[in-house]
Structures are given as C-alpha cells and as structure tokens.
Amino acid sequence: MAFELPALPYSTAALAANGMCQETLELHHGKHHNAYVTALNGFVAGNAALQGKSLEEIVKLSYSDTALAGVFNNAGQHWNHIVFWENMSPNGGGIPGTLEAKINADFGSVQAFKDAFKAAATTQFGSGWAWLILGSDGKLKCTKTPNGSNPLATGEGKVLLGCDVWEHAYYLDFRNVRPNYVDNWLNKLANYEYAAAQL
Ligand code: MN3
C-alpha cells in the first residue's frame, strides 16, 4: 500500500496568528511534504525489498546504506513532517506540569531547555532538524540532524519534539532570520501536550 500525505491536524490558516502563515503551510504541507511522499512511493514501487515495510522500518534500514540514500532522504522527511505537523498547535507554547518537571530535572530550567534547543536549531548548518528527545539513559536532550535524518534513524532516542529548520519552513514568515523563527516556534507553536504524551 502506498504511503499517503496525512491531513494537517488544523487548517492551513490556523497557525497564522502564531507566526506561521497560510502560504507557508500550503507550500510546506501541500508541495514539500507531498513531494517526499510521492518520491518515496516511487522508490518503493521500484524496490521489492521495501514493499510491505512500515515507514519506520524503511527509515531504519535505509539509514547509512549509501545505495538507499534517496530512499532514506524521502522516508526520513516523510516521518519528520508527520511529527512536525502533530507537534505544532494553534494553542502552542504552554508546557504541561509533568513535562515541565522533567525539563527542570534534566535541563535545570525551562529557559535552559529553550536555550539548548535554540542552539541545536541555529547551529545546524544548512538544512535539517532540531529535536527534543528522551535518550536511552532516561534523560531529555536537545539534538540536531542534517537534511532528512532523525533520532529514529540514528538511534539517539525517542522524539518528543522536532522543529524543521529547512529554509522552506520559515522563509516567508521570518526571511533569513532562523533564530527568530526558533524562538517563536518554542514560545507560540510547539505543542508541548504532544511532547508530554510521548514520555
Ligand atoms: Mn520541511
């Protein structure tokens, strides 16, 4: 069965008041994410070894296999964007008590967490993602990956939040100023209810 572009969990206009305009979401979801899904389906159709595999299985098996680099790029980006749409909200920015307690325990403070996440997001050279993950040691960490990679592939930990720092994610709303996009994302767009539910 072919992979499908999931519907957004809100309208394309729903995040405009929070700093992500309708045109950004229309292009990002309808064009960029859709293109990854179409390309992935093309790879699967041409490779019997991929058929019948879940998205997670394809991400893991194609990671670090240079013969499957194109598969990995598109499978990774499909997985990453599924997380991305779910981990934003028109009511974003508020951190539930259970997650706040865990953040305070592992980072020292909410501000220290935001500083670490912003550092990961702004030091990812070129395209990629910033993540809040639960590491195998049971501690929260902020990390980053290039292009279509993610912590599922690298085995670094369980994803609680992922922020797309490809220019297509922020150029219409914040032009070239990625740090402002990341600040706004953490304070107004991030769905910390989703993150808390992953714990
Ligand atoms: Mn993107």
Assign the CATH topology. minor pseudopilin epsh fold
Distance between the termini: 30 Å
The side-by-side strand order for the widest beta sheet comes to 2-1-3
- CATH superfamily annotation: Iron/manganese superoxide dismutase, C-terminal domain
CATH class: Alpha Beta
Structure annotation, total helices: 9
Question: Structural class, from secondary structure content?
Answer: mainly alpha
Question: How many strands?
Answer: 3
What's the average pLDDT?
A: 98
Provide the β-strand percentage band: 5-15%
Order of helices and strands: HHHHHEEHEHHH
Low-confidence stretches: none
CATH architecture descriptor text = 3-Layer(bab) Sandwich
State the share of residues found in helices, binned by percent. Answer: 40-55%
Q: Which ligands appear in the coordinates?
A: manganese (III) ion
Write a structural description:
The protein is mostly helical. It has a single domain, classed as 3-Layer(bab) Sandwich (minor pseudopilin epsh fold). It has nine helices and three strands, in the order H-H-H-H-H-E-E-H-E-H-H-H. It has a three-stranded antiparallel β-sheet. Helix 1 packs antiparallel against helix 3, helix 2 crosses helix 3 and helix 5 runs antiparallel to helix 8. It is globular and about 50 Å long. The mean pLDDT is 98. The protein binds manganese (III) ion. The site of manganese (III) ion has 7 residues, from helix 1.
